[in-house]
Amino acid sequence: MILTIGFSIVLFLSLWAYFMFVGVMNFAQNPDNLETPLPGRPARRTIGRINSDVEKSIWAILSSHAVFVFTLYGTLEYSTLLPSFILTLIVLLGGVVMMFMVTPANRRAHAYMNIGQITIIHMVSSLSIFLTIGAIFNEKYLNYQEMGAVSLIIVGAMMTYSRLVHRYKKSKK
Amino acid sequence: MINIEIFPVLLPLFIASLVFAFVCFGHLAFKNVSIKKICVVMAVLSVPFTLFFTKMLNIAVFEFDISILTVHVSFLILFFAIIFIRGLFKVKKLPSLVQMIGPMITCAGVYFFLA
Fold first, then answer.
1. A37 is a domain residue
2. ipTM at complex level
3. Are the Cβ atoms of A126 and B72 closer than 8 angstroms?
4. Structural domain contains residue A78
5. Residue A10 placed within a domain
6. Given CB atoms, is A7 within the 8 Å cutoff of chain B?
7. Is the CB of residue A111 less than 8 Å away from at least one CB of chain B?
8. Assigned domain for A67 exists
């Protein structure tokens, strides 16, 4: 169980490494060297804001997938105890709540990254939550082959959308 | 050898992921519309997706005896594949070597997952 949960946490944290590599997030460099200063003014200093916005989007997408995965797969466990229309209603409620969380998060994230990169957030968040909930409540654990396969899928997806995001560079003149 | 347990529900899964991709990213073309209206529309659109996915999941798990991990990962792979194919039609620059190797690694991961 610890191995599966640890794997899902590492999978989720890899998003930060990925976005730092791609250039969406920047925690180290001076904004003055990265952005074009306006005449008579300093650079716009949006680096921190970008990090904050992207992090908000990631957490919102993770929470929305948590709601949906919890309701969807939770109803499977109780499919014999409750009537089917109540279970459907619970899943519907989960889906609607998910959409109310995902839509603003997707729009906010799309200001800084492309759709492929947002898809990677969805894949990683959904898998992390699914593996964690499955390990805690259903006692379903990943073996090493499945972990390797899932890692390959995610790394391949990240490599596919690994083009650096365009940033304004301070001109040398 | 690939395990073919997922094949009976592959088409419904593809439809579900197509609808999910549309619901997730369809609104990004309408950034002039207020986010509240978009949220309501997307929540309404998510209702048929949720009903369809729930029904399909019940059939996959209880009738075809497919594990939910396989269903979930297959759904995410198809979701990614749809976005990737959409991107192929909109690509402007030639992809780099790393970007070309990426889909191959994903395919290898899918093979090892289903094997």
1. no
2. 0.88
3. yes
4. yes
5. yes
6. no
7. no
8. yes
Size of interface A-B (CB pairs under 8 A): 150
Domain that holds residue A151: 2-25+51-161
Q: Write down the pTM of the prediction.
A: 0.87
Share of chain B above pLDDT 70, in %: 97
Minimum-distance CB partner of B28 among A87, A106, A123? A106
Long-range contacts of B74-77 (CB under 8 A, 24+ apart): B74/B6, B74/B10, B74/B13, B75/B13, B75/B16, B75/B17, B75/B20, B76/A122, B76/A123, B76/A126, B76/A127, B76/B17, B77/A153, B77/B106, B77/B110
pLDDT of residue B93: 78
Q: Look at chain A and report how many structural domains it folds into.
A: 1
- A163/B79 touch (CB, cutoff 8 Å), yes or no: no
Q: What is the pLDDT of residue A38?
A: 64
Looking at the partner chain, which of A87, A130, A159 has a beta carbon nearest the beta carbon of B98?
A159
Q: Do A153 and B110 touch (CB under 8 A)?
A: yes
A46: its two tokens: 């949006």
